[in-house]
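Appendix B, Record 12. Input sequence as logged:
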Amino acid sequence: MAGLMGAMILAGRSQQWKDSTLKRFLDEGRGQGEEDYKPWLKVSDISSKGRVTRLYSRKLNRTIHLLTDSQTRYFYLLEFDDRVVSVKEQYPLLNIADIMDQLDESLVKRLKNRDGTPHVLVTTFLITAKDEKGQLRTYARSIKDRTELEKKDTLERLEIQRRYYESLKMEYAIVTSEEIPYQRSRNIEWVLPALYIEDAGLTEQEVKYYSTYIMEALRSKREPVRGILDAFERETKREKGLGLFLFRYLIASKQIEINLDQEINIIHTPEQMEVVVRESTGVGRDVRSG
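Logged structural output:
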């Protein structure tokens, strides 16, 4: 099935880091490029305590490599955010030498492995997004589980990253798994694959026609969403489940808005789900106003 649905793999092997590996990564252009960006680390390169995920991003038009569940949950938020225009995952700090004079001896030691091979520090995400004025700004985020922050070596590597981005006058922050809105991310993961209408055997014309039907019903009905979708399937004589697919499509395409921070439960009414139907002008109309 096409779409932003990742292949989740239980990680179990790691690649030995040595000079030849470093050279190969550089020769492959990892950590470089814009639209054709290649992450420094791929899911096959290192071991992980959790699941690693490969998924295709519609926004970025490439496969994304995510090394923990927390990274995956955070990425779904970025994928759904219209302000975000670029994401570089597993971004390497290849010019860390620029701030060597700002590091004390204990931090410098973190930049080499025991055998002397340079250790390339990697930031989880380098993100470019539009601010309130529509201007592009780039910022960096490291995604970490809270238990990792109890380790001295982890904290020292994060401190080097903080100083690196500070030297670039770029915002940098650490995001723990507890700070990622789990339900919102889970809901986004559920609705986004519905953007691939070909998976449901639909044409763009059909989707436009059916979407208008469902949006009008959501505006005017006070019955549970399930009843609205069941009625759509009966009246159009379409297969069971198509109504729910289109409901997901409307959320994913942002033609309707709902409260993504609560569980999506179609036994609730549009009012309970805080549904807002978008007008063709782009102005939202709250269905609660009738």
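Residues 204-220 form the longest helix (17 residues).
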